[in-house]
Amino acid sequence: MDNFNIILTGVGGQGIITLVSILDEACFVQGYDVKSSELHGLSQRGGSVIIHIRFGKKVNSPLISRGKADLIIGLELVEALRDIDFSGPKTALLVNDYSMGFQGYPEKQEILVALNKAVRGGMHLVPAAEICKKELDKDVVAGVYLLGYAVKNNLIPLKKESFLKSLETVIPQKYLDLNIKALNLAFKS
Amino acid sequence: MIKKVLLGNEAIVRGALAAGVDFVSGYPGCPSAEIGEEFGKLSKENGVYAEWSVNEKVALEAAIGASFSGLKSLVNMKSFGINVCSDSLFPLAYTGTKAPMVIFVGDDPSCHSSAQSEQDSRGYAYLSHIPFLDPSSPQECYDFTKLGFEISEKFNVPVIIRSTTRVAHQRAPVIFDVPGKRDFKRGDFVKNPHQFCTMPPRVLEMKKELLEKIKKISDYAEKSKINKVVGGNKSSKIGIIASGISYFYVMEALEELGLDLPVLKLGFFYPLPKQKIKKFIVPLKKVIVVEEMQHYIKKEIKTIAKDIDSKVEIFGKNVLSEVGELSVENVILALAKVLNLKIKIKTKTPSVSVPKRYPKLCDGCPYWNILPVIKRVAPEGTVFGGDIGCNMMAGLPPHNIQDYLFSMGASMGISHGVSRATGKKVISLIGDGTFFHSGIPGLVNAVYNRSNPLIIVLDNRITAMTGHQQNPGMGKTVMGQNVEQIKIEEIATACGVKHVKVLDPKNMKDLEDTIKDFMQKDEVSVIVCRHICALLERRLKSNPDLGEFYINPQVI
Predict the structure, then answer these.
(1) Considering its fold, how many domains does chain A have in total?
(2) What is the Cα gyration radius of chain B?
(3) ipTM attached to this prediction
(4) Which of B5, B348, B541 to mutate to test the interface with A (most CBs of A within 10 A)?
(5) Structural domain boundaries, residue A41
(6) Which of B5, B249, B347 faces A66 most closely, judged by CB atoms?
(7) Residue B235 and residue B260: Cα distance in Å, rounded?
(8) pLDDT tens digit sequence for B418-454
(9) How many structural domains does chain B have?
(10) Chain A residues within an 8 Å CB radius of B362
(11) Which of A21, A114, A174 is facing B350, going by the closest CB pair?
C-alpha cells in the first residue's frame, strides 16, 4: 500500500496531542513506519491546530502535501474547513458535529455545504461530542470515538485491536477505561 | 535496545541518558520544553540532577560549573535562549569543557510558537566556533545526541545540537538503549585556572587552541557517517545538498517526481566536510542547496566551488524562500524550476471564507480579570508595554493593549525608555516567569534612572505558556523538591520600588483602585496580580498527585 496520510485538525485544548499519540502507537503496533508532526505552545492556547500523520512501509516527510490526505479528521467544523485544501479526489472527511464559535464564525449550514462540496460528498458528519457526553458524560473522548468510527467504516487501514493496544500504552490507567468505552461505543451504533 | 514511538525531544533525552548524562539545566521554551520536563520526571531513577534555571545564561553557566567539576551535562533551550547565553557561550568555546557537554537549541521556522524573530541559530556556529549538528528525525535526535557527547569528550569542546519544530515535535519509531538505574554522581572540581580563566593575554592563546581544535574536528567531520551521499549514480549531473528536516522534504519530492538524483545529507553544519562536498560537486553541472531560513550552506558551497574552479551552477535562495519553513511542495517547485519541469500544484480554496481563530486566554484564566480592568481604567492614549508569555494575548482581540513586544524581559527597558522620552505614564505587563528570567535588571534600571512606569506582574504561579514549568516563584523545582518561594514583591522592594502591592485579581475592585492610585505616582510602581493559572488549578483538582510536582503546600 502507498503511505496513508491523515490530517487531524481542531482547536488547542481539545486533546489533539493525546489523539496523535494514540494514532502513532496504533500504526506502530500494526508494524508500520509512522511519522507525525504536531505543534505546541502558542497554537495550543485555543488557536487552530493541525497535525499531520503518515504511515506505511517507509515514510520520509512528516508533513503531508496539499491535496494528498487520505483522511481528514476534524474535531471542530470550521477547523476542518480551514484545512480542506489537504483533500484530494479520494479523501474521506470525518467531522465531529461540534462548533467552537468566535466573532465572525460562519453559519453552520454554509460550513457543511462547503465541506461536502470540497470532498465531493465524501463527508461523514458524526455528533461524536454529543454521543460521548450523553453515553459517557465526557465529550473530551470524542476524538477516540471518531477513531473507532473510522475503523468501523473502513476509513483507515488500522485494526480495532491495534487501537486497544495503543490506548493501553498511551493513556494513563486512570482514564483508560473511559477511552476504551469511547472506542467501543463507535462499534455499537 | 528497544524500539518505541518517541517525540524528537524525548529522543534527545534518551540519547543523553544513553551517553550517561549527569547534569541537566535549561529554560523552557517552544520547541524544547519537553526535554527539561522529561528529565524532571526521570531524574531520581536515573541519577541525573535536573533544574530549570532562571534563564538560559545561568543554565549554561550551571552546566559549565558541572563540566569543570567532571560531570557530563546537557543544556536545553529554544532558539532565543542561545542569544541570552551567548555571553558565556563564546568564552566556553575558548576554555573548552572538562567533562563533555551538549547544548540543545530548538529553532522555530515559521514562528509557530515564537514572537520576536524567525531565528536561524546556525549563525552562532560561526560566531562561537562550536561544532554544530543538525538532526532530521527523532532517531537522529537520539543518535546525534550520543555522538555529540562523544565529540565533546574527544575534543573537549561543547557541541550544539540544533533542532527545528518539525524535528523536535516529530513523532516516529526510535531504536534506543535504556541504561540501568544508577545513583547521583558527585563531581570534583580540580583547580586549573590555566584552562578555566579567560584573562588576557592567555585568552588569545586560547583562541589559537580553539582554531587548532576546529581543524581536527574538520578532519573528523570528513570521516563522519552523518555526512552521507544517498541515491543518484555516476552519470548524475544534478545533485542536491540538504540538512535537517529539509532532507526528508527532498527525498519525498524526488519520490513524487520519480527522480533519482544524488543527495548529500549533511549532519554536521559546522565544521562542514569540505573535501566531501568538493568530491560531491566535481562531477555536477547543477547543485541545489535545500535549507530552511538563512542560506548559510549555499554560501559555503559557493566558496568551495570557487576554490576548485568548478563551474557548477548553485541554486538556493533563487528557488527557495528565506522566510518561513519549507515543505515538500516548495522543494518540488524548486526542482521544477531548476530542471525545467512543468508542474502545477493545485490549491483548493473553500467556498466559504474561513476567518482566523486567534489563540486566546483559557476559560477561567485570571488574566480575564486583569486585562479588561487595565483597559477600562487606563486614560485615553496610555502606552502599554507587553512581554513574552501568556500575557502576549493582551495584544490580541478582544484586548488589544500591547504597543510593543520584544524579547524576554524587554518590556522593562523599553517602558523605561518610553517613559523617560515622553514623560508620560506607561503601563507595562510582564509574567512571573519572565520577571525572574530577565525583568529584574530593567526594574533596577528604571528605579535608578528615575522613570515612572506602572509595572503589572501577572503572576499565575507557574511558567504557563510553554506547558507548565516550575519557576522560582512557586516553591518547587523540576525534580519536585519543596524550596523557598522567592517573592516578586520583595524583589521589587529590594530594587527600591516604593509603591508595591500584591492582590488577587479576582477582586477586580481592588485592582481598579490600585491602578488608579499608582497611576498618580511619579515613581516606578509595581502591582503583583497573584492568582493560579486556571488550567493548572483544574489539573490539580482532577489529579491531586500532581501537587507533588507543581505546588508547594507552604506557598498557596
Answers:
(1) 1
(2) 25
(3) 0.96
(4) B5
(5) 4-188
(6) B347
(7) 11
(8) 999 999 999 999 999 999 999 999 999 999 999 999 9
(9) 3
(10) 13, 45-46
(11) A114
